[in-house]
Amino acid sequence: MAKGDPGASTRGRRAAPRSRKAVTGDPELVQLLTPAGERIDSVTGPDGTEYRVDFTDEEYRGLYRDLVIVRKLDAEATALQRQGELGLWASLLGQEAAQVGSGRALRAQDMAFPTYREHGVLYCRGIDPIMPLGLFRGVDQGGWDPNEFKFNMYTIVIGAQTLHATGYAMGVTMDGRTGGENGEAVIAYFGDGATSQGDVNESFVWASVFNAPLVFFCQNNQYAISEPLERQTRVPLYRRAAGFGFPGIRVDGNDVLATYAVTRHALDNARNGQGPTLIEAYTYRMGAHTTSDDPTRYRIASEVEAWQAKDPIARMKAFLERAKIADEGFFADVDEQARREAIDLRERVLAMPDPKPVTMFDHVYPNGSPLLDEQRAQFNKYFDSFEGSAH
């Protein structure tokens, strides 16, 4: 599948099941693919919107490929950290469908503001997956050109990126870059824990009153580090949007098809001047919050096992098999491609050179600074005082 729009092609479409409501146990949850891999043609959301996707067989296979590769690269990064090659890693294990579905729903001109876990969205935006590993290895500042990839740099401060996204989206409106399919929309990613931060709630206020072309995408993985959801809110997170004056919707975050449909609809509403939307992607963090975390201290094994039965990759594979869209040869080829890409990523990470200490002064200001020059000179003098030093 091309890395642009998985719904762009209209040829070779396969007949889908009749339209009906998904049986999820949650009437407010939008779902197009059950955990058993049963395809639902369309679902009417609580807001009355009909959600559906219409992909070719190749596009369905492409989504599966994305899911598998993203998980494999993420697992490789976790292994690198355990082996001392990265200082830290924030795994996305279990959240692949939320990220791939929303990432593929973005149009080329749309801008994304991530946290520190959106490796799947980064992959869908065509960014080399080694980029964030430089940050977590400590050899660079994790920087790439946000304008080139329409993907802002990783944000470590919880919730701060929602303020950045809101300001950017307000600028999109002021610059007249909304209206029609060519209009620009913005998406801000954050977790359920961030919804307790003042930054996020302030962003809701500003985005609402300025009718910003912004989608707030909350990956509710059930835990704010170690704090469960019930300690954070008395109502479903998506309902908070109503208090700020814009719509909210909950989607099955382990369903890549529903995530795509809901996100594309919200983005198109935003780009056409209909203001912000809050999407709560209901999913689960199968691994640790980061590699410095021990989730066994605050959750039980049976809970993890229950969510493993809803695994987003197994679900998509079951659908492909049920619909006879893919065979064992295809699945083997995808696994092999993922393995090769993971090996390549590992080799490139290990080959990363350690930066010279003085380079910390580079790129602080675009045109330099007298004060910075003075600090650099003082540092060089100090560093030269050590025998055998090298800047």
From TrEMBL:
Keywords recorded for this protein, A-Z: Oxidoreductase, Pyruvate, Thiamine pyrophosphate
A Gene Ontology biological process annotation?
branched-chain amino acid catabolic process
Q: Per the record's keyword annotation, is Oxidoreductase included, yes or no?
A: yes
| Composition skew (Basic residues), residue ranges | 11-21
Gene Ontology MF annotations? magnesium ion binding; oxidoreductase activity, acting on the aldehyde or oxo group of donors, disulfide as acceptor
Give one Pfam hit by family name. Answer: E1_dh
Annotated SUPFAM superfamilies: Thiamin diphosphate-binding fold (THDP-binding)
Q: Which domain of life is it from?
A: Bacteria
Q: InterPro entries per the record?
A: Alpha-ketoacid_DH_E1_comp, DH_E1, PdhA/BkdA, THDP-binding
Residues of the Dehydrogenase E1 component domain: 67-356
Cofactor dependence is on: thiamine diphosphate
Region (Disordered) residue ranges read 1-26
Task: Name the PANTHER family for this protein.
Answer: 2-OXOISOVALERATE DEHYDROGENASE SUBUNIT ALPHA, MITOCHONDRIAL (PTHR43380:SF1)
Q: What is this protein called?
A: Pyruvate dehydrogenase E1 component subunit alpha
Tell me the lineage of the source organism: Bacteria, Bacillati, Actinomycetota, Actinomycetes, Micromonosporales
User: Gene encoding it?
Assistant: pdhA
